[in-house]
Amino acid sequence: MHKVFLKPGKEESLRRFHPWIFSGAIARVDGEPEEGEVVEVYTAQKEFIAEGHFQIGSIAVRVLSFEPEPVDHRFWTRKLATAYELRRAIGVAGNPTNNTYRLVHGEGDNLPGLIVDIYARTAVMQAHSAGMHVSRVDIAEALAEVMEGSVDNIYYKSETTLPFKADLFPENGFLRGGGSDNVAEEYGLKFRIDWLKGQKTGFFVDQRENRVLLERYAKGRSVLNMFCYTGGFSCYAMRGGAELVHSVDSSAKAIELTRQNIELNFPGDPRHEAFAEDAFKYLDRMGDQYDLIVLDPPAFAKHKDALRNALQGYRKLNAKAIEKIRPGGILFTFSCSQVVSKDNFRTTLFTASALTGRSVRLLHQLTQPADHPVNIYHPEGEYLKGLVLYVE
User: Fold this and answer.
1) Among 28, 84, 148, 182, which residue's Cβ finds the most Cβ atoms within 10 Å?
2) Is 294 in contact with 233 (CB distance < 8 Å)?
3) Is residue 180 in some structural domain?
4) Which helix (H) or strand (E) holds 41?
5) In what helix (H) or strand (E) does residue 355 lie, and over which residues does it extend?
6) pTM over the 0.70 mark
């Protein structure tokens, strides 16, 4: 196994169990490890401190263990079993009304670079590091063992998530099984999951509990679900007794999937309409017919250099919604950009509210659900921010 030696003092973050080693912290590497290879990490005093996947780039090593141990079948089964037990403990796995949840959330489950989402009897696996890509077959074998027959299919979907510089040439496809049944259940509602061509792993599992909260506020309201994607919030609003629900997304394919999901749960229900249209254009032309609006846009900033423009985009979007919403209206607004902090987002909403001159009160501060845990030593894992506002 190749060895990585750190510069003096650069082991301090590892002593605090942070799982990333940046390239600038490395003094030298013995030999030439390949992308995705497991390496041992030593301090400048030549003391073992961690082992993890090596990768060329800013994050040079993603830590798998702070103890020397073989990364083998036993390692993967133990890590996955721990993740599965957590999901059982919080009630999302083994729930008779819910078979949609995140089983592995990267650093939050001490498996940096790996995502696994469960949709009924299919697991969708996604690698965000070269090491997890290299280990994908071993992980799939361990996953099938840990799930004990509750999963028939394991679909690997990493063509767009791996670093392009690694020259890994990933191909999406089934590692086990190959079933075509793509309907999963979330708290009693059914959804078609497009893991073949959809965004992320096919569905935004991270909004599950926030959708439940919206259902409580929906009764008798006129709801606008902006950036609706697969219509998750729309379905919960319908079940919550909304008077009407309009779903908007710039993607015609997303709108078609939303319509399918509405029909799956509320066949022939006239309360719902869907529109394939740009969000800003729709907000500009709409009147004041809505008293519950959901703004759940894609990440406006994926790196720090884009932060300023992202905050301007959030401010403009939210100011328009606050301006147009009916008196007594409720706004659910989100940011999934990791580089946008909770303080950034809240300050942006303060500015957007002030621009409208309306009285706005904060009802809830939202985040990702418990099956997207945040490693307390890796606060960067807290990426989803949400606010629920009451607009007088």
Assistant:
1) 84
2) yes
3) yes
4) strand 38-42
5) helix 342-356
6) yes
Q: What is the pLDDT of residues 9-24, one digit of tens each?
A: 999 999 999 999 999 9
Q: How many helices (H) and strands (E) does the chain have?
A: 10, 20
Within 13 Å and on the Cβ side, how many CA atoms surround 243? 7
Half-sphere exposure of 174 (CA within 13 A, CB side): 10
Phi, psi (degrees; rounded to nearest 5) at 117:
-110, 140
**Do 107 and 383 touch, CB atoms closer than 8 A?**
no
Whether 285 is covered by a domain: the verdict is yes
- Same structural domain for residues 150 and 267? no
User: Which domain CATH number covers 13?
Assistant: 2.30.130.10
164-183: per-residue pLDDT in tens?
Answer: 666 778 889 999 999 778 99
- Which residues are the active-site residues? 336
Residues 142 and 80 sit within 8 Å (Cβ to Cβ): yes
Q: Is the dihedral of CA 339, 344, 348, 349 positive or negative?
A: positive
> Quick check: 35 and 55 in contact, CB under 8 A?
yes
Alpha carbons 162 and 136: distance in angstroms, whole number: 13
Alpha helices (runs of H) in the chain, residue ranges in sequence order: 12-15, 73-89, 130-134, 136-147, 208-217, 232-239, 252-265, 279-285, 307-324, 342-356
Within a domain: 81: yes
How many structural domains is the chain composed of? Answer: 3
161 burial via Cβ count (<10 Å: 0-12, 13-18, 19+): middle
- Read off the amino acid at residue 221: R
Q: Are residues 168 and 243 in the same domain?
A: no
Contact 221, 243 (CB under 8 A): yes
Pair 182, 159 in one domain: yes
Q: What is the rounded CA–CA span in Å between residue 266 and residue 207? A: 21
Average pLDDT over residues 191-216: 92
Residues 277 and 356 in one domain: yes
Give the range of the structural domain holding residue 166, as residue numbers without chain letter: 73-187
